[in-house]
Design brief:
Length: about 350
């Protein structure tokens, strides 16, 4: 065996398949396709991000090499299996998206047709290395599915890839009609966003903070809360906790004292300082104009710099997790102590 492959196998953990030896379906594992159903894929492939919406859904599975010779700024993907489910009027869009996913970082592709298969051959770039690659795609109109596969030419034949696609299609276990699933997928962002918003409301209710978009700014236990629509980030709520003041200086640096065990990181520290004409905000926080106006009313001494801890949360189309405002609440006792001791922010000479 060539010395390169000996070193790669020992150091990089390249599989036998990636060394250009036997390629086939091999062992498989059952993988879910969201609510649509299940499919068997080769065990060497792992799920990658699912794309839903636009009249189709795209599921992909890929293999990343562990070889040190392929490492770099991009994921060292050497094989892709992609499956698209589509509305009949989105068939061409699904084919385009699936082909783009399978052919990612593959250039100079020359396409041919062999029966029901489209076969493309080009050069696949993996960071600093290049490999001849083949993409094989087949549509299943009666099932509203398209399946595509990419791998390096040295690893398999076109017939191997066709067989893999056919085996994958045969293993597909459909749980709901494609149209029903795509409707669920279309509704998912709205449902998840509302679930996120409900969880955020529940959190804020623990401190009697209302969640009402464009409602009045409220103050609870010395912290100000503003629920509004940001021009860029949309609906959100921002909590602003005053820390104190220091003599105005040309510049300040924010230090990084050790956080408490229940605080993953400190919230953003924002400074207001008079620049000769107006109160300048340093720290680019997500503060509304009305919040800035309210805070400026508190700034009576132009020889002092005013410091605040700021945290914001916005409803997201994801399952709710931890919230930045909750981290702020946990951090406030420590923030106050560190600010008083002078080891949170310091003026620069």
């Amino acid at each position: 065996m060539h010395l390169y492959w000996i070193v790669a196998l020992v150091i990089g953990g390249i599989s036998v398949a990636s060394a250009g030896m036997f390629f086939g379906t091999g062992s498989t594992k059952r993988q879910p396709l969201a609510e649509l159903g299940f499919v068997d894929v080769p065990s060497r492939l792992d799920p990658y991000a699912t794309r839903e919406g636009e009249g189709f859904a795209l599921f992909s599975f890929d293999q990343t090499s562990g070889s040190i010779f392929l490492m770099g700024s991009n994921r060292p993907v050497s094989e892709v299996l992609a499956i698209a489910a589509w509305h009949r009027d989105s068939r061409s869009d699904a084919l385009k998206a699936l082909t783009s996913r399978a052919a990612d970082r593959t250039d100079n592709i020359k396409w041919t047709t062999q029966g029901e298969y489209r076969i493309g051959q080009g050069v696949h770039e993996v960071n600093a290395s290049e490999h001849d690659a083949r993409i094989v795609v087949r549509e299943y109109p009666d099932r509203q599915l398209t399946i595509g596969h990419m791998t390096w030419v040295k690893r398999s034949s076109a017939q191997d890839q066709m067989k893999l696609i056919e085996t994958t299609a045969a293993s597909f276990e459909q749980r709901v009609p494609v149209a029903d699933y795509l409707q669920l997928a279309s509704d998912r962002p709205r449902i998840l966003t509302e679930r996120y918003r409900a969880a955020l409301r529940k959190l804020l209710a623990m401190r009697t903070v209302p969640y009402k978009v464009d409602g009045p700014i409220v103050e609870r236990d010395g912290t100000f809360y503003d629920c509004y629509v940001h021009s860029h980030w949309g609906e959100m709520i921002t909590a602003v906790h005053p820390l104190g003041t220091l003599p105005a200086a040309r510049s300040f640096r924010t230090l990084n004292p050790t956080t408490p065990p229940n605080v993953p990181n400190w919230p953003q520290i924002v400074r207001f300082q008079w620049d000769g004409e107006e109160w300048e905000v340093d720290g680019t926080p997500a503060l509304s104009d009305r919040m800035i106006a309210l805070l400026n009313e508190r700034h009576q001494d132009r020889t002092r710099a005013y410091f605040y801890a700021v945290a914001s949360d916005a409803p997201q189309p994801f399952e709710p997790g931890e919230f930045r405002i909750d981290f702020l609440w946990r951090a406030i006792p420590g923030l106050n102590d560190h600010f008083k001791r002078g080891d949170l922010v310091q003026p620069l000479p």
